[in-house]
Model the fold of this input.
Amino acid sequence: MNKIKKTGGNRKYTVFWPIVFVAPFVICFFLFNLFPILYSFQLSFYDWSGVGEKTFVGLANYVRIVTEDKMFLKSLGNTLFMMVISFPFAIIFGLVISAFLSNLKHGRRFFQTVNFLPYITTPVAIGLIFTFLFDRNTGMVNRLLELLNVNGLNWLGNPRLAQVVIAIMIAWKYTGYYMALYLAGITSISEDIYEAARVDGAGALTIFRKITMPLLKPITIFIIVTSMIGGLQLFDEPNLMFNVSTTSVIGGPDRSCLTLLWNFYDVAFGSTAKLGYGSAVAVCIFIVIVLISLIGMKLMNRKEDVI
Done:
């Protein structure tokens, strides 16, 4: 009988204490994550400026995004363009640097730290640095171009050049992060595989192309998927770049650097403060991110099935 009571008591505590320890996270998640998402979805069906009464408009906000809002489509195009010209270079450079560091005998930690520092640098500092570098009159980049007898370019005033500057900033920031991921993957590959390839007469380039890159494919898929998701949430880099610029406008020159999240921020919290319409924009961004996440998960699961 005592054993039965003791077992019942243990079961009681086994259920009670996990709930106690999990409850703070569940409560905070509901209050600060789930509830804002659900409330934002509800607001997307209303016309509301944040003050006064809400007016129910149904799907009118979503119809306006698809048919009338040119800034949403422009911001989507800008975001995709900057992603295409930045993340591929960051991924390739990260892979090349990791391959170089994996064969380095001395000074590996120093070069790892130097390459990883941009990723942990605050966005404000990065925006200031690149603004000073690409300033038309005093920027170091134009000074170097003048030494090559090339006239200084209006990097921050030309729409396409401004996008290139943002892309360079993103590539510079994330190369070290991708290097760390690839380096972790390379160091986890068994040395016996490389030894067997060398015995068969394979060179360094053949080993990298036939062994290292295929074995790093799961990491590459992970990096590509997270890069696409992170790219669609791009906000800090262009916003900080043109907030500290003397020619700052919403979205940069000709709104060429207006991203999806910057457009959402401007619509929801800018001068117009249309929280209802801004919520609809946020929901559309959320749907795009979810779709890309599902595609990425499908690719990763397919790879696992092959293995």
